[in-house]
TrEMBL record:
Keywords: Cell membrane, Glycosyltransferase, Membrane, Transferase, Transmembrane, Transmembrane helix
One Pfam short name: PMT
Residues of the ArnT-like N-terminal domain: 31-236
Gene Ontology molecular-function annotations: mannosyltransferase activity; pentosyltransferase activity
Listed name of the protein: Dolichyl-phosphate-mannose-protein mannosyltransferase
Statement: the UniProt record of this protein carries the keyword Ligase: no
Topology relative to the membrane: Multi-pass membrane protein
Broad class of where this protein is predominantly found: membrane
Organism: Pseudorhodoferax soli
One Gene Ontology biological process: response to iron(III) ion
């Protein structure tokens, strides 16, 4: 097993090297990354650390500010760019991996902890999230910190882990809100009911001083945010935490659209998030169930408190969102660490050689696929739904007559890469816009609407400048007024 772990350790380092290169070279693609990156950019530019802004004048009430604080600091320290905005997410996931490894060492030994680290780092969703501009890595950090701290408290008294539990709650509250508390409390209560010795952690918890610490860290921002932009608490607590998950077509979403899915789809998301390890685990589990000795060992392991804890942790997030149809696959990220620990223990304790041999090939699947995707997106940027290169072409063809116009809705990537100078115009408003323009303007239109733009422009000369995956950009000269 030792030499295998060394080889897989090299694979782990190579995978992270690929991830770091991609963090700086792959552009933001619509929708989530450039949207959150633009919120962080506005925070860094304005110096407003209380209210995240969706656009100048429109507060972003959809998420608490922890991820935006980290990303804005990255921009302040390293300059505006993909790497500076993505680095905080990688650091959050690295902290999750460290906490997992600490728990794995104490719970099941060093070899199993190393296997778990390898599994986690090469799972699809954790690999993608590590170095992405998302809020989910910070929620995963808060939940992992909470549950690791509670597990250690169940073993022995510890002021460090006691207060760490409440600091983890603060991270969750400042990254996603009360959802983090629900995820943690569900696992803690279920484990205490299923495994009586776990209740010892409840008696060792510094409830009074820890609660005060949590409130001092997290509540002031909520109060200041409501004072600064009244209505925040109602929208965030009711809309984002109740209506978003109970109303598939929630019309109150101010910043995007509802993600209507079939109820129970979160379990498929969990299987996808764990790829390719979920395939290995499913095959391995099926083989164990038909083999009597393996089945008995599996049943015996469920009597262990640590196994019960990890099973509850792994099931907590998909169980919570089972009845919700307004979901994203990133919601299962807080449970991925527990899945990795369970699989790491199974790999370390396996009496068969084929699972570990299969793990060697499994560990390189996601990094290799990501390397191929990153290379393709750099060589052929038209593969991505990003307007970075179109905006750069517009800057190279800068006109004194006005900004770059996008016909219809303005893509988030265009907002970010133009630093909010790009503008949107409805198709039927193009003639009036051209009438009020002197000289030439740049207009980006979806490929399917290009013929309609030609018709509306009338006799105004149009010159093709560049095409992206979704848009064609033209240089349009204002025609005589009579033409309209």
């Amino acid at each position: 097993m030792g030499p295998t772990l060394k080889v897989l350790g090299v694979a782990l380092l190579l995978g992270q090297a690929i991830r770091w290169l991609a963090m700086g070279l792959v552009p933001f693609a619509d929708t989530s990354e450039p949207r959150y990156a633009e919120v962080a950019r506005l925070m860094a530019e304005s110096g407003d650390w209380i209210t995240p802004w969706f656009s100048p004048g429109l507060p972003f009430w959809g998420k608490p500010p922890l991820s935006f604080w980290a990303q804005a600091l990255g921009i302040r320290w390293l300059g505006l760019g993909e790497f500076s905005s993505r680095l905080p997410g990688w650091m959050a996931m690295a902290a999750v991996a460290w906490l997992m490894h600490r728990m794995g060492q104490r719970m099941m030994g060093v070899p199993a902890a190393r296997w778990a680290l390898l599994v986690f780092a090469t799972m699809l969703l954790p690999f993608v999230s590590a170095g992405a501009v998302l809020t989910d890595p910070f929620l995963a950090l808060g939940v992992t910190w909470n549950l690791v701290a509670f597990y250690f408290l169940s073993l022995e008294p510890s002021r460090r882990w006691g207060y760490g539990f409440f600091l983890g709650l603060s991270v969750g509250l400042l990254s996603k809100g009360p959802l983090a508390v629900v995820l943690v409390v569900g696992v803690v209560v279920a484990w205490c009911l299923w495994h009586r010795p776990a209740r010892e952690a409840l008696r060792r918890m510094p409830w009074l001083s820890g609660t005060i610490l949590m409130l001092l860290v997290s509540v002031p921002w909520y109060v200041l945010a409501e004072i600064k932009t009244p209505g925040f608490l109602h929208y965030f607590l009711l809309g984002e935490h109740v209506l978003r998950f109970t109303d598939p077509g929630w019309a109150g979403d101010l910043y995007g659209s509802a993600h209507e899915r079939a109820r129970g789809a979160i379990w498929l998301d969990g299987f996808l998030a764990g790829m390719p390890w979920s395939l290995l685990a499913a095959g391995w589990l099926a083989a164990a169930l038909v083999n009597a000795p393996s089945r008995e060992r599996l049943q015996a392991s469920l009597h262990e408190g640590s196994t019960r804890f990890l099973v509850l942790w792994a099931l907590s997030t998909p169980a919570l969102f089972t009845v919700s149809s307004n979901i994203l696959w990133t919601y299962v990220l807080p449970s991925c660490g527990a899945v990795a620990l369970l699989l790491g223990r199974a790999l370390a304790n396996s009496t068969a050689h084929w699972p570990r041999r299969a793990a060697g090939a499994t560990a390189i699947v996601v990094p290799l696929l990501f390397a191929g995707f990153g290379t393709a997106s750099i060589l052929r940027p038209s593969y991505l739904k990003t307007e970075k290169f179109l905006v750069e072409a517009a800057k190279d063809n800068a006109m004194t007559s006005g900004p770059l116009y996008f016909v219809g809705e303005l893509p988030f990537s265009a907002r970010y890469y133009s630093q909010d100078t790009a503008r949107s115009v409805e198709l039927d408003a193009v003639p009036s816009m051209l009438r009020s323009t002197k000289g030439e303007v740049l207009i980006a239109v979806r490929h399917s609407e290009a013929p309609a733009l030609h018709n509306l422009a009338g006799t105004a000369p149009m010159e093709l400048v560049m095409t992206s995956r979704r848009y064609t950009m033209y240089r349009v000269a204002a025609a005589p007024r009579a033409a309209f």
